Amino acid sequence: MNDNQTPLASGANAGEATTINDNETPLANAEQTNAGSFALVNILLAVLSIISAMVMGLKGMRREGKMSMTAAGIVLAIVSVAVFFLTQDLSGNMVIADMFTVVMAVIAVVQIAVGCMMNREEAKENR
Questions:
Q1: Which pTM does this prediction carry?
Q2: Rounded CA gap, 37 and 111, in Å?
């Protein structure tokens, strides 16, 4: 028996040989590298915004009557997640960054700035 023949369990069609051709590996189309893709940095920035909002929410729960900063952090986290899902195609390839990374970075920086302002207010109150 040569290498191209596979013995059948039932012995049927033992005289017939089937040839299986090798498939060619498809190559990436250089023109469509960003079409249908999502950015890893955008995911990380959205998660950073969510974590920052959770931390601000926990700190805001300790402070009575000072929910404006906490509400701003929660709104920014919701905006960050909404922008991510509206601008990214999760069924495509993953890339490091895309044209919406700047928008996500601005949202994350504002989120962190709000958190820093909240920490400064808390530090002033504790003095």
A1: 0.67
A2: 25
